[in-house]
Amino acid sequence: MKNASLKLLYGEAFRPPNFQEMFTTNQPAIEGNKDLDPETIRTYEVGLSYQFNKHVTSSVNYFYNDIEDLIVLRTAESANEPARFENFGDAHVQGVEMETRVDITKDNYVFMNYTFQNPEDNHGNDLPSVAQHKGNFGMNVHYWKYINTNLSTFVSGTRSRKDDNPRDDLPAYALLNLSIIAKEFFKTMEVQGTVFNLLDKDYSDPGPMAIPDDLPRPGRTFFVGLSYQF
């Protein structure tokens, strides 16, 4: 099938413990652990993509991630002792990714992708703070040879809490991002301007009980870049 392609992927990676996880001291609530091992991950993926015609291309991937030596903050058994970072158990994440791109004219297209993932620990329990559903959709418009505009929306599903956290799950949210690239107006120079969280959405990442309002994420953020190829 000349319009189809199959891929099989395998990868390995690791994350060493950071400075806070290893060396936090003189803190009544949290204690570092200099004996931590790195987190490790093995990834397996199989994917199929198909070009239906000159305009539409779609793909679907199945992935499985095997994570070992997760670094977590363990609550102490005694209220008089600080919580401590430890390597605690393993995790397994499997899921499906789907993507479609529709080319309208050269460099003008719409795109969408969706991911479902099911993260579990080594006892089969769902992992907290991880969204099972997430996706992107948007469009790329090259209306002038010097200017390219990309508008995209990132959507995240709800995220659950730890078992000992009685608060409600964090709600789903969506972020709108806009990027404008100016190129070919002066030799190989390229100027890019990006606005992340264009609508200044107020959202947070899960935080411990000691932080009632969780961990706030950035509001509207601007980025400007300049590149020149010699």
From TrEMBL:
Stretches assigned to the TonB-dependent receptor-like beta-barrel domain: 4-198
Compartments, record wording: Cell outer membrane
Primary residence: membrane
Keyword Zinc (UniProt): no
Keyword Ion transport: no
SUPFAM superfamilies reported in the protein's UniProt record: Porins
One matching Pfam family: TonB_dep_Rec_b-barrel
InterPro entries reported for this sequence: Beta-barrel_TonB (IPR000531), Beta-barrel_TonB_sf (IPR036942), TonB-dep_rcpt-like (IPR039426)
Native species: Candidatus Brocadia sinica JPN1
Its membrane topology: Multi-pass membrane protein
Name of the featured protein: Iron complex outermembrane recepter protein
Entry keyword set: Cell outer membrane, Membrane, Receptor, Signal, TonB box, Transmembrane, Transmembrane beta strand, Transport
Similarity comment: family membership: Belongs to the TonB-dependent receptor family.
Highest taxon above the source species: Bacteria
